[in-house]
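Reminder: ligand-aware prediction takes two inputs, not one.
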Amino acid sequence: EKDGYPSFMEKEINDQPDAVAATLLGRSDLEGKLTLDEMRIDPQVLKTINKIIVLACGTSAYAGQVAKYAIEHWCRIPTEVELSHEFRYRDPIVDENTLIVSISQSGETMDTLMAVRYAREQGAKTISICNTNGSTIPRESDAVLYTHAGPEIAVASTKAFLAQITATYLLGLYLAQLRGNLFQGQIKDILADLAKTPAKIAQVLANAAQIKDLALSMANTRTVLFLGRHVGYPVALEGALKLKELAYIHAEGFAAGELKHGPIALIEEGQPVFVVVPSPRGRDSLHAKVVSNIQEVRARGAMTIVIAEEGDESVREHAEHVFYIPETTTLLAPLLTTVPLQIFACALATAKGYDVDQPRNLAKSVTVE
Ligand code: BG6
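Here is what comes back for the chain with 6-O-phosphono-beta-D-glucopyranose:
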């Protein structure tokens, strides 16, 4: 069942090109027109939505954070992301013009189920992004968009995460199509970029040895920081979570711009810092800002490990280690930049002799509140 891999986690990390491809399959035609069969909410109703709230826990919540950037950019619908267990207890503003998008691999996470039930009671429309056919959350939602990652056995999520991000892109493009926020040609171009990501993920996986070697050399590390901006921020959070879950190493992810407002005080000689660098071809001088963040931590002694786009030579002089990912657009980059961080956490945990499939204290789906 592990297809010759030493763990389900390694198998599932390597399944990711297929997980993303399967999630994209059959959802658009050659003109780029999306038809989401399981989207059982009346299109007229979806046109009147004036707010989206994404609800999820753990890794799935980080997929939701990526979704916020894409959906707001493409659809111009205000989008919040909230942890399911916080949502219900704060008297949130939810009505019939609110679209709830829950994200759950298992479809059984009690915190998320209760949040969805609460939102429905307030009259909201609910869509479930889920990896498990017929599970409770999709059954209790108005519509479902299944991720087709295949069964995920390892407790900590990997392939389901990339499939969830892919599904939220499809949802965002579908809403943009329906509401006329993007031209059909633009949607077609984005879908074409998406269709290229499985092969690009495979390229990242083919370079796994480089990141595994680094992980082996860091087996005695006690704390690791992860920085990112824009969609690289949730990727940094996910990189830190994987390291905590699998290798039991203290790790924190930060928005790189937040560094100077506090976390930079943590930097001392030798502190490992991963930095997720956006494409230099992207908008808004994001790239330059992140490069200066790398310089800031390095000037204080950090050991910098940089994930950057192929051809981005500007980062080399600021980094102890550089891992290159293939070119893609700013919004789609998490499908690639996450992968080296998963490989790193898995390899480091394996080097320490831990069971990466069944980390201590964790359960695959938490069915209590
Ligand atoms: C946790 C799992 O308990 O639940 C995580 O250990 C997962 O891996 C989180 O991300 C949310 O689970 P789900 O099934 O709702 O996506």
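The pocket of 6-O-phosphono-beta-D-glucopyranose is lined by residues 57-60, 104-106, 109, 112, 155-157, 362-366 (CB under 6 Å). DSSP finds 13 helices and ten strands in the chain. We will return to this case in the review session.
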